[in-house]
Amino acid sequence: MPHAIRCRAAVWPLAALLAAAPAVLAWADDAPIRLADVVELSGSGASVGTLWRDAAHMAADDIDAKGGVLGHKIEITDYDTQTNPSISRAVIQKALDEHPYAVLGPIYSGSAKVDEPLTKAAGIAEFTGGAATDLTHMGSDFIFRTALSAESSEPRVARYLVDDLHAKKVAVLWVNDDAGKSVHDAIVAALQKDGATVVADVSSDGGQVSFAADVQKARRAAPDAIFVYLHEEENARFLKEVRRQGVKVPLVGDTTLMDAQTVKLAGADADGVVGHAMLTPDAPIPAIQDFVKRFQDRYHIMPDHNAIQGYMAVWLVKAATEKMGKPDAAQLAATLHGMTVDPATEPGILMKTTVLPNGDVDRQSFMVQIDNGHAKVIKVLPMLGS
Amino acid sequence: MFWDNLDLLISGLATGATYALVATGFTLLWQTSSTVNFAQGDFVTLPAFAIIALHAAGLPLPLAMLGGLVAALIVLGAGFKLALVDPMLRHGMLPLAIAAIALGVAVQEGSKAVFGAEAFAFPGVPGGFDLGPLFINWQDMVTIAAAVVAVIALQLFLSRTRTGRCMQATAQNPSVAQILGIPVRRMIMLTFLLNAALVTLAAILISPTTLVKFDNGSSIGLAAFCAAIIGGFNQVRGAIAGGLLLGVVENFAATYGPDQYRAAVPMVLLIGFILFRPQGLLGRATERAV
């Protein structure tokens, strides 16, 4: 009997809590929209995570300065994945326990991959900067990219290598992590489809210091061009080694090779590299130029594609929420699928952006060449759906 | 093929020379104060950041390097010994080792808080020369030469000067050294200052290649620790041999072995030496009463 009394005593507060839940969960008129920013703030990904975080906070301030989202202010809480998937899983669980409206990040595909089942189970939209192909093939309706996926980027690069550079033999150097593996698989498949041969396939480690052996392996294969996908700091080390070994063939890469951080660190060694940039602070788009200037004024550092993605993610949340007419975390993901946000109506989105039904994103992208330490857009590539 | 291998050898020696400098610090501290400084790799990043900050503040590079050295002597030499090693060592080696690991984390996070998470370029020696079909960087040559000169000077200092011999006596038996009138505490302090100077030199030599980033110390520290074990933890010259061997083997393994396993090479070497030659390449086998 005492046990039954204890059970009844425990049931009443629980019932009261459940009864009050709708009221607690409903968005009060002045309740802020709380976003959990789960990104790489320490560890090897700290530089990209920090830029993303800063840009997301800038977007929130910009939105709040214009009256918020349907009158609601945006409140962002930052969580550090430490660039470690297992820690990322733990912190995203903590973030979800606090019932955020949406999750921003992570940027690294490995972390996004382990977080995805949790946001799916919670029914909360997650905006990741990850480029790994399988992120949007894992059966979640709640995952959204801010980056172009490898399978949509790399065919554009392969086409440039084969059609513009007439490369028949290509050496592929890549970083052996989730994003690198996806890019590798996508570029190799695209090159083979376009009739080129991969004559050297060299993987490297994140944080690798010496690229003497990697460059030599690629050089020995006598390629017509070298495709590179590494992280920014490793790109700089790789470029220094390439110049030291006197490699003369064209160097072509994806977004990270032309990133402002790579160019700053590699200096003159970056001159001449060409590549595909899904987003670039050098894009000939006035809204992006305005964002870059304001970001530099505020943080005294050059933003990169990660910063632009962090900024866009918050504006995507705003656009979808305003389309719904009220903040509704449960419906946010469904609203985002298939939605197109145009800067003509929502200037903060910077570029016309379509969220595809599987959570991938479609936008214009750019072919960029580094010239005298500056990235120059040499070609604007249309949206895939255009 | 010959030229390719020569190229790998030279760049491996350059990388290995910086491992050797950091590894030498490991062995010095171990010999004189039984300290295994697991923050040694992170010690390399601090002078690099100090030099960048001083240079950015307007000091010419040589003066900035001098400033970095002074800062390292104060913080990483005297400060490290007085604030961490002295209070912890009396509790045994394990608490000190754990405290050093914690210090490494603190150094990383502190560097990130002050300088941010992005990497910084560090000025190096520009240009190079042609050797057959190879282009040899002056930076690599300077790195190898500076490390070799530093280590020879250190060896001469330890073996040919009165202070150096007092330091060796302290390393071999501090109690007897004390009885003989050697100022043991001063000798130990001198070792910590020498270590600070070595990591500053390593920072100047390695940073043009690795760039300067808050978390660079982890990989450098691990490689140097392996180099010290491989060379022989109780011999300065062993640390040199271990560092150079490790740098060269890493390069050749990455070229001729599978890419995916290159990170395991130092560990495989380390395990091999522990199993088959625990005293290391040039170390002395020692006995211990149990």
Report what the structure shows.
The complex is a heterodimer of chains A (386) and B (290). Chain A is α/β, with parallel strands linked by helices and 386 residues long. Chain A folds into two domains: 33-148 and 284-355, Response regulator (Rossmann fold), CATH 3.40.50; 151-277 and 366-381, 3-Layer(aba) Sandwich (Rossmann fold), CATH 3.40.50.2300. Chain A is 45% helix and 19% strand. In chain A, strands 7-6-8-9-10-14-15 form a seven-stranded mixed sheet, sandwiched between helices. A five-stranded parallel sheet of chain A has the order 2-1-3-4-5, sandwiched between helices. With 290 residues, chain B is an all-alpha fold. Chain B has a single domain, classed as Orthogonal Bundle (ABC transporter involved in vitamin B12 uptake, BtuC). Chain B has eleven helices and two strands; from the N terminus they run ααααββααααααα. Chain B has a two-stranded antiparallel ribbon with strand order 1-2. Classes of the chains: A alpha/beta (386), B mainly alpha (290). Chain A binds chain B through residues 41-44, 46-47, 49-50, 176, 202-205, 207, 209-210, 212-214, 216-217, 220, 232-233, 236-237, 240, 244-246, 261, 264-265, 267, 301, and chain B through 4, 7-8, 11-12, 15, 108-109, 112, 116-121, 128, 135, 137, 209-211, 213-215, 219, 250-252, 254-255, 259-260, 262-263.
Short structural description:
The complex is a heterodimer of chains A (386) and B (290). By secondary structure, chain A is of the alpha/beta class.
CATH architecture of the largest domain in chain A: 3-Layer(aba) Sandwich
CA radius of gyration of chain B is 19 Å
Order of helices and strands of chain A: HEHEHEHEEHEHEHEHEHEHHHEEEEE
Uncertain runs of chain B are none
Helix content of chain A: 40-55%
End-to-end separation of chain A in angstroms reads 71 Å
Helix content of chain B: over 70%
Number of helices of chain B: 11
Supply Rg of chain A.
22 Å
CATH architecture of chain B: Orthogonal Bundle
What is the CATH class of chain B?
A: Mainly Alpha
**Major pleated sheet of chain B:** 2 strands, antiparallel
Assess the beta-strand content of chain B as a share of residues. under 5%
**Tally of domains of chain B:** 1
Q: Strand arrangement, largest sheet of chain A?
A: 7-6-8-9-10-14-15
Kindly identify the CATH topology of chain B. ABC transporter involved in vitamin B12 uptake, BtuC
Distance between the termini of chain B: 52 Å
Major β-sheet annotation of chain A: 7 strands, mixed
Return the structural class of chain A: alpha/beta
Q: How many discrete structural domains of chain A? A: 2
- Taken in chain order, the helices and strands of chain B follow as HHHHEEHHHHHHH
